[in-house]
From TrEMBL:
This is Apolipoprotein A-II. The keyword Transport applies. It comes from the Eukaryota. SUPFAM superfamilies: Apolipoprotein A-II. Its main location: secreted.
Length: 101
C-alpha cells in the first residue's frame, strides 16, 4: 500500500514539474518580443498604410467631385430660385386682381 501511495505521489510531482517547466518555456525571450514587434510593424507598413493612403485619395477625389458639382449646380439653383419667386409673385398679384373684381 505504501508503494502505491509513493507511486501516486511521485507521479503527481513529476506531472507538476513538467507543467512548471512547460510554463517556463512558454515565456518569450527578448529577441522573440522584438521580432514579433518588427513583424507587426512591417505588416502595418506593407498592408494597412497603403489602404489608408487609398482612403485619403478617395476622400480627395470625392471632395473635388463635390466642389465641381457645387460649381455647376449653384447657377442653376439660383436661376430656379429666381424663377420660383417670380412665379409666386405673379400668383399673388393674380389673386389680388381676382379679389378686387
Amino acid at each position: 500500500m505504501k508503494v502505491l501511495v509513493l507511486a501516486v505521489v511521485l507521479l503527481c510531482v513529476c506531472s507538476l514539474e513538467g507543467a512548471v517547466v512547460k510554463r517556463n518555456s512558454e515565456t518569450p525571450s527578448l529577441s522573440d518580443v522584438f521580432s514579433q514587434y518588427f513583424q507587426t510593424v512591417s505588416e502595418y507598413l506593407s498592408k494597412q498604410l497603403p489602404e489608408k493612403a487609398k482612403t485619403e485619395e478617395l476622400k480627395t477625389q470625392a471632395k473635388a467631385y463635390l466642389e465641381q458639382a457645387h460649381e455647376q449646380l449653384s447657377p442653376i439653383a439660383k436661376q430656379l430660385h429666381t424663377e420660383f419667386m417670380d412665379l409666386i409673385t405673379q400668383l399673388v398679384e393674380t389673386g389680388k386682381k381676382a379679389v378686387k373684381q
